[in-house]
Amino acid sequence: MTRLFLIRHGDAYDEEGLQVDDSPLNNFGKIQALQLAKRLKHNRFDMMYCSRIRRSMETCEIVNEHHKMKVNYTARLNEVGTDTWPQPGIKSVQSDLKDYSEATKKIYKTFREIAESNLNNEVIVFTHGNWIRVLLTKILANGDPKTFIHFVVHHTSLNIIDVDDFGFEHIITFSDAAHTQLYETRI
């Protein structure tokens, strides 16, 4: 059994609610990452992967303070999607659905390659909300874009997927951000 911990980066939205391509973590995002690090400090990981986008790398670095592991950085874990990807109330145009379909294939291939190259290991992967949503949609609904809108992936949440010896995926935990609940209140 291979266990993959898929982690969404910490909060990186600025005061205006914007997050650009390479936004750093904001102060709240750093607190979230510290809480995640505390939660995972006793876990033993065999391999660590991370997106090449700054907010994901910063989250990874904070968690890795407890583990001191070599990190495998790859753009294949970078954020995907557009503002017009399948969303409630927005009619998706054909080009967006084609982009979504291509992203689904690439993400699932990356996930399977990571799982298959780390058989019987525990692997932590720092990535992005849409990346995780696309993967879950592929596993649960064969990539149906209508399913994509139903998933919310919280910042620094644990999304644990086991891949058994027969290659079947088992979603163990989805969007578990219990470590941040004390800090969710904003005035």
From TrEMBL:
Annotated binding of substrate, by residue: R55
Keywords: Hydrolase
Catalytic residues in the record: H9 (tele-phosphohistidine intermediate), E79 (proton donor/acceptor)
InterPro entries: His_Pase_superF_clade-1 (IPR013078), His_PPase_superfam (IPR029033), Mito_Ser/Thr_phosphatase (IPR051021)
Residues passing through the membrane, by range: none
UniProt GO molecular function: hydrolase activity
Gene3D superfamilies on file: Phosphoglycerate mutase-like
Pfam families per record: His_Phos_1
SMART domains for the chain: PGAM (SM00855)
PANTHER family xrefs: PHOSPHOGLYCERATE MUTASE-RELATED, SERINE_THREONINE-PROTEIN PHOSPHATASE PGAM5, MITOCHONDRIAL
Protein name: Phosphoglycerate mutase
